Amino acid sequence: MVRLSFAGHDFDALPQGALYWPMRRALLVADLHFEKASWFARGGQMLPPYDSMATLSDLTAIAAALDPVEVWCLGDSFHDNAGCDRLGDEAQTRLRALTAATRWTWITGNHDFRARADLVDRCGGAVVDEALVDGLLLRHEADPAETRPELSGHFHPKLRVRLRGRSVSRRCFVASATKLVLPAFGSLTGGLDAAHPEIVRAVGREAEALVPVENRLLRFALAA
Questions:
Q1: pTM, whole model, 2 decimals?
Q2: Average pLDDT taken over every residue of the chain
Q3: How far is CA 177 from CA 6, 30, 80, 181, in A?
Q4: If we measure between CA atoms, which residue out of 118, 110, 69, 112 comes closest to residue 87?
């Protein structure tokens, strides 16, 4: 883990794309996209059906290592409203054990819990549209007009650079003075270039891509 300071709070950034908030013993993740492969399969596009278990394995390992009291999922945790129903028995058991062991909160995204969330099985936990926690707004998508400090997901940012003649891609955080965008944690999520105009529009031209490696946080300016 690498220390990351934002809006007067200290966090630990994990290379897997999660964020740990020591003061609150809180784990934050974004864009898990559980059951994305099965959603595509319903439309005839067959993908290996292992994405949910892979994501759950990573999430379970981090939770076991950090022992958080709170877990905040910043939207698009399932690829659609029925994602929890399609989870296999083992995956459901593991996810329900996680949500039961902590104060677990699902923040709504553009994919999940969009309609009648009170009637949708979300495998435990509470559902909110957004939350204000110790002065920080937690929501799914950054609002360019928001002046309060905000943590979000949605864009799946990745840093792409060329090294020794080949392109290298790495999930990254994107941060400005008032915006902190988490990378997608899910195993089947892809990513948008951190310097993409939509990300720059959302967070501002002064933003940086942050890549945690070993004991350092590498910083890359997004816009000249």
A1: 0.89
A2: 86
A3: 7, 20, 32, 12
A4: 112
